[in-house]
């Protein structure tokens, strides 16, 4: 149970504020996360890490000399937004390039990739290495699909040490990739975890049982067994990981025995005692192990064992000194304290729209108010749906996104924006505050709709239909989901197609939209019959059958909400053909 919080929606922001205040010797807050408050004598490649909150010391606790230069810190169990990653990486870059590194989750990949593209367009040299250490999250012939868990630390430590040693960006990327290839983790859990303010745990492990291979957000593993003794657990870990040993990996290994939040250090030491003995019996030599909390999952009782197989270069980098709020080793060279300018990105000037476009923008504002009310009402249910096959944060993410989007849109409308600029402002704020997969997807849709409506002429119903078709195409190109994968796309495609067909037939926008919203709802409901194959729910396989996809359900809800606004509108909206 997470007991101490104020407003649950503000938990991540308040946590980050407190963390930065308590860790000022190492980090300073910047928009989107934290960067180092110290600087080495010479500029180096910058290592920027990140992920959702709820996993401390991942990720902010690993920012400091010899480790990361910055961390983008997202909402609870939700990836940071592209804006957050961009802000942190831009601030951290010392002119020698940036390596982005994070655990392999759908939302993180979408947002980090967007940030990387933007940074490259601005002239930064940026590479990415995703961490894929969790052996139970995909079979060995699809290693690239595996999740990142406590092995994050192994990869970050190697990359950070290489940067500190003066490697160029090619070199830092190379060793980080090499470390990831030689890192394997195996996790177990005895209980679920409860997000702040939630009435029930995100998932449960039956009393007296242990979930084997369960991920750090409750993603299912491979088995549920009786809780073993500490020695039996150590044997399970060691045998499981050694079966997955990288080819030609040698005999020198770093074990990381990680507590996931609700297991005592003392219990971990009892397990470690047997881990060490078993590794020695298998002819492996242990190098500088770690036992403790390295990547947690709120109050989840569980632990994981990671093995990093060393070669000479990796061993030298693993042994190098580091000094971060939650990870210290050896003595780092004296660092200069710096005060990084932390100005938020300047708000883009709002261009005035034509009077006709401003009228459409006002209608967009009314629709967004209604969308806020709809999501506020549905948030708990969306969270419940997401907790069956996902990480339970869909309601939280949608609330953060739609509130921020509405507020930004209202500010744009007050500044005289047309419909296009209003929707773009909404998209940027939605993605920034929500993070996660749905934040990236909703932002992509709103941007495309805004581009179709523009700021000049009064948008026609064809403009709206084209905007929705562009949104559909953008989401499918960006997230790579097809109809039938059990995602929002299952509702977006019939919505956009039905709207386009209705408008082409000569229906009014309201008539065509009503048909389209009905098609979206029907398709969203039917996702209950499917097994998820993409996004976080992918790893839940058949467990998602019987429950509709939360993103499809929230999409359908919002299209029905807009339908009500169009129906109640005094004049026929977008009446031109
Ligand atoms: N590749 C994808 N394309 C489109 N939608 C996706 C994709 N992957 C996941 N989704 C949608 O995102 C929803 C989850 O949103 P959110 O709760 O923000 O995700 P997460 O916390 O998993 O990042 C899913 O229910 C699904 O509808
Ligand atoms: O949950 C996390 C991010 O993944 P999403 O795909 O956005 O849910 C996070 O905790 C790990 O970065």
By CATH's scheme, which homologous superfamily of the largest domain applies? Dihydroxyacetone kinase, domain 1
Ligands in the model, by name, code or SMILES, are:
adenosine-5'-diphosphate, the ligand O=C(COP(=O)(O)O)[C@@H](O)CO
User: How many DSSP H or I helices?
Assistant: 16
Tell me the number of strands: 17
Rounded mean pLDDT score: 93
Biggest sheet details: 7 strands, mixed
* Estimated helix fraction: 40-55%
Oligomer: single chain
Provide the CATH topology of the largest domain. Answer: Rossmann fold
For the record, what CATH class of the largest domain applies?
Alpha Beta
Cα-atom radius of gyration:
24 Å
Task: Characterize the structure shown.
With 577 residues, the protein is α/β, with parallel strands linked by helices. It has helices at 11-22, 82-92, 106-121, 151-164, 169-181, 230-243, 265-281, 312-319, 355-389, 394-414, 419-434, 436-453, 461-479, 489-505, 509-526, 550-568, and strands at 27-30, 33-36, 38-39, 46-53, 70-76, 98-103, 126-131, 183-189, 209-212, 223-226, 252-259, 285-286, 290-292, 302-309, 322-324, 327-329, 336-337. It has 2 domains: 8-317, Dihydroxyacetone kinase, domain 1 (Rossmann fold); 355-568, DhaL domain (Serine Threonine Protein Phosphatase 5, Tetratricopeptide repeat, Alpha Horseshoe). The strands form 4 sheets. Strands 8, 9, 10, 11, 12, 13 and 14 form a 7-stranded mixed beta sheet that branches. It has a 6-stranded mixed beta sheet with strand order 1-2-5-4-6-7, sandwiched between helices. Helix 2 crosses helix 3 (106-121) and helix 3 (106-121) packs across helix 12 (436-453). The longest helix has 35 residues, at 355-389. The mean pLDDT is 93. It binds adenosine-5'-diphosphate and ligand LAUYXW4J.
């Amino acid at each position: 149970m997470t007991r101490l919080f104020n407003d649950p929606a503000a938990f991540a922001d308040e946590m980050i504020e407190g963390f930065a205040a308590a860790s000022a010797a190492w980090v300073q807050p910047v928009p989107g996360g934290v960067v180092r408050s110290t600087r080495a004598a010479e500029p180096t490649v910058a290592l920027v890490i990140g992920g959702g909150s709820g996993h401390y010391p991942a990720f902010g606790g690993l920012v400091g000399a010899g480790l990361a230069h910055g961390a983008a810190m997202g909402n609870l169990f939700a990836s940071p937004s592209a804006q957050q990653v961009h802000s942190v990486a831009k601030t951290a870059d010392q002119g020698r390039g940036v390596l982005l590194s994070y655990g392999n989750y759908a939302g993180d990949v979408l947002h980090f990739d967007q940030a990387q593209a933007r940074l490259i367009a601005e002239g930064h040299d940026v590479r990415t290495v995703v961490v894929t250490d969790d052996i139970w999250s995909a079979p060995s012939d699809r290693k690239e699909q595996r999740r990142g868990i406590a092995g994050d630390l192994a990869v970050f430590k190697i990359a950070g040490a290489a940067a500190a040693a003066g490697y160029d960006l090619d070199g830092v990327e190379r060793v980080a990739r090499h470390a990831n290839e030689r890192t394997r983790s195996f996790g177990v859990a005895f209980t679920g975890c409860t997000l702040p303010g939630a009435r029930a745990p995100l998932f449960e492990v039956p009393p007296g049982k242990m979930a084997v291979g369960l991920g750090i957000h409750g993603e299912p593993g491979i088995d549920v067994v009786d809780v073993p003794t500490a020695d039996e657990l150590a044997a399970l870990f060691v045998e499981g990981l050694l079966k997955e040993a990288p080819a030609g990996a040698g005999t020198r290994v770093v074990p990381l025995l990680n507590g996931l939040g609700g297991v005592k250090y003392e219990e971990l030491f009892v397990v470690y005692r047997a881990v060490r003995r078993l590794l020695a019996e298998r002819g492996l030599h242990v190098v500088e192990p770690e036992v403790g909390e390295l990547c947690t999952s709120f109050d989840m009782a569980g632990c994981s064992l990671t093995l990093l197989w060393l070669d000479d270069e990796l061993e030298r980098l693993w042994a190098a000194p580091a000094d971060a709020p939650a990870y210290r080793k050896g003595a780092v060279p004296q660092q200069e304290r710096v005060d990084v300018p932390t100005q938020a990105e300047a708000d883009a000037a709002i261009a005035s729209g034509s009077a006709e476009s401003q009228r459409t923008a006002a209608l967009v504002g009314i629709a967004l108010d209604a969308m806020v009310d709809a999501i506020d009402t549905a948030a708990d249910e969306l969270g419940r749906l997401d907790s069956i096959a996902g990480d339970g944060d869909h309601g939280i993410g949608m609330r953060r996104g739609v509130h921020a989007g509405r507020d930004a849109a209202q500010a744009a409308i007050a500044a005289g924006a047309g419909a296009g600029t209003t929707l773009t402002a909404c998209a940027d704020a939605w993605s920034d505050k929500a993070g996660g997969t749905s934040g990236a997807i909703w932002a992509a849709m709103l941007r495309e709709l805004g581009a179709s409506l523009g700021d000049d002429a009064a948008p026609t119903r064809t403009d709206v239909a084209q905007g929705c078709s562009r949104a559909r195409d953008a989401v499918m190109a960006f997230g790579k989901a097809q109809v039938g994968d059990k995602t929002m796309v299952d509702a977006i495609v019939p919505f956009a197609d039905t709207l386009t067909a209705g408008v082409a037939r000569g229906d009014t926008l309201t008539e065509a939209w009503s048909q389209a919203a009905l098609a979206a709802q029907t398709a969203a409901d039917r996702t209950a019959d499917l097994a998820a194959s993409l996004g976080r729910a992918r790893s839940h396989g058949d467990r998602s059958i019987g429950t509709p996809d939360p993103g499809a359900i929230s999409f359908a809800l919002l299209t029905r909400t807009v339908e009500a606004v169009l129906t109640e509108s005094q004049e026929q909206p977008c009446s031109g053909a």
